Amino acid sequence: MIQHSGLHAAALLFGLVAATAARQACAQPRSEASPAAQPIPATIAPQTYAPELIEAGRVRFAADCGFCHGRDAAGGSGGSDLTRSQLVAEDVRGDRIGEVVRAGRIDAGMPAFPALPESDLAAIVAFVHDRKTQAESAAGGRRSVEAADLETGDPQAGRRYFDANCARCHSATGDLAGIASRLEGLALLQRMLYPGSEGRGTAPPPARPTVAVSTRERQTFTGTLAYRDEFTIAMIDASGRYRSWPTSRVDFEVDDPLEAHVDQLARYTDDDMHDVYAYLETLR
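RE: above sequence
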């Protein structure tokens, strides 16, 4: 969402935060080793793809897969880290990934996408393989951020920014009271920037966005928002089925408690981001 050149560093850090914290938030019992501790399996058939195909896959993956698997395919809210997936390691240009995407894994909460165009599937495959290649070549294999890396902001400036931009929905003495005692370091920054992931700590995750759709036939459907753009609205209903409609043919209402955070990402400067984090660190 960060597109302004002045926010390039913020975008890089956001990507690192979302990737690392999402891996830490994978749906596993707390007693098990972190998914980040698992080695990345070697790709049996190294593959390269055109940059434009990878970019197309990044957009489609974020829309259809990013909520669960993370925007960088490194794990998200209940979805596995695909850069460490044995299936991805054994995939050759979509021969295995395609089967899973088409059929889904309903028992694991993954919907099927039988009608996904072949061009979109090919782009997603390209993106996933590119992300795995980047994960394999990460210098030193570093998969974490030290708390000291984050402590560069001004708490007073952060409080001013918070009062001007965040206080309408949040309160330092209400919902955020003691937040720095419940979430520390990277987990706190991740919750601030990307609150849709659970993160570590005792703070409960925010609710997922929901949508209610009314058709011209006067049928009403409700479920978890799966995808939305100018032309399409889609959900996962209570049975786990993926449903989608052209926006021009239905009425719909989205309830997304995180929309303000998404908008905020486009406004943060590097200093703003670190200042607000420094202020949240004082709320113990």
